[in-house]
Amino acid sequence: MIQKIDYAGASEELRTSLGLKSSPVALRLAHTKDDIPGGMEKLDKTVRHCQMVSMARKEGKIFYATSENHECFGGAWALGLREITESLKTGDFYFKLGKFESAPACKRTIDRIPHLESGSTYATLYAPLEKAPFVPHVVLIVAPPRVMLKLAQATLFRLGGRINSEFSGIQSICADATAQTYLSGRPNYSLGCDGSRKFSGIGDDEMVMAFPAELLTELVQAVQTVTQAPGSKK
Q1: Do the beta carbons of residue 65 and residue 42 sit within 8 Å?
Q2: Where are the beta strands (DSSP E) in the chain?
Q3: Which terminus, N or C, of the chain has the lesser number of Cβ atoms within 10 Å?
Q4: 0.90 cut: is pTM over it?
């Protein structure tokens, strides 16, 4: 981005105005090794993308991960790190997990999962927004529905309209929040999924929202306004 942004200041404003208990997470999809800032450490273990997000938002960790660090094949595919597996492509994977009545029903869902072109991503970069040493592509927030209400109001503050979110109850952090937001250039809201709630500590009282980093300054200003509006519930 051409515009210079104070990520630390933006994060503080979001945390203060919304009462966030953890940091907004800065995410970048690096297409080549040269996209990774010097000094950033590579993750030393294999976990899921949703767990990596949790490490940044709850533990303040800054790192990058390549394909071999991603344990979830569905997440790695959605983020453009790997080819889709045959079991995921045919629908057998989620069908065997009992998520759909039939493999065709699963395939109809998989065929509409937002995903980057396989092999287009070299690494995924993670940091708390306030400490981001890179220019993020997506900013992700995990918070209760009350906070999502304020974020929705902030999303509509300048132009109005309606919130149109896409989710399917699977691949929430990787596809719904990261890939969908990156590809569409629009904020997206998601309910989380069984995997992200089980492995990354998303609470039963929390939801997921992500927006393109290009909207950060505008959204922060809108959040400050709507949370202090006369009609806003304190």
Answers
A1: yes
A2: 25-30, 63-66, 123-128, 138-143, 188-190, 207-212
A3: C
A4: yes
